[in-house]
């Protein structure tokens, strides 16, 4: 069976109603169904919508960025860091890979820093306001690559 590419606009809020993120005006994001490009709890509720549909989608933390995991918090000696100027709230990628976890500095002492590899939205229940854009059949190339191409999708350089 052929798969679909879904484009949509979104505003993401936490349960307190604060805006966390949103798609850019006029530029929807897109995903290939079943490819794991967006969080599972959101995809499940988008597949089945039609162009122009507006919907508020609640996604529990467990189906979004997961629950917080204390084992992802690590104490690192400052001598192991590439820089001396580190402060609470600094964010850096934990490796050269595009998929390497994002580490957030949560504590700084004279000898150590504590870094947290939990996703910044781990443990958060999320509320998406969705407006559906175009829905089309995936191209053979997209199916081979396992992601959506074009505006809002994956760009190859
Ligand atoms: Zn591709």
Structural class: mainly beta
Specify the helix fraction band. under 10%
Number of domains: 2
| Proportion in β-strands | 35-45%
**Please, what is the average pLDDT?**
92
CATH class call of the largest domain: Alpha Beta
Rounded to an integer in angstroms, the radius of gyration calculated over CA atoms is 19 Å
Distance separating the two termini:
30 Å
Shape estimate: elongated
How would you characterize the largest beta sheet?
5 strands, antiparallel
Looking at the overall shape, the CATH architecture of the largest domain is: Roll
Number of strands: 9
- Sequence stretches where pLDDT stays below 50 over 5 or more residues: none
Say what the CATH topology of the largest domain is. Chitinase A, domain 3
Which sequence of SSEs, written as H and E, runs from N to C?
A: EEEHEEEEEEH
Helix segment tally: 2
The kinds of small molecule bound in this structure are: zinc ion
Explain how this protein is built:
The chain folds into two domains: 4-65 and 124-145, Chitinase A, domain 3; 70-116, Thrombin, subunit H (Beta Barrel). It is built from two helices and nine strands, in the order βββαββββββα. The protein has helices at 40-46, 140-145; strands at 4-14, 19-22, 29-32, 54-59, 73-77, 91-93, 102-108, 112-116, 126-137. Strand 7 (102-108) and strand 8 (112-116) form a beta hairpin. The model has no long low-confidence stretch (mean pLDDT 92). Bound molecules: zinc ion. Zinc ion binds at residues 145, 147, 149, 154, 156.
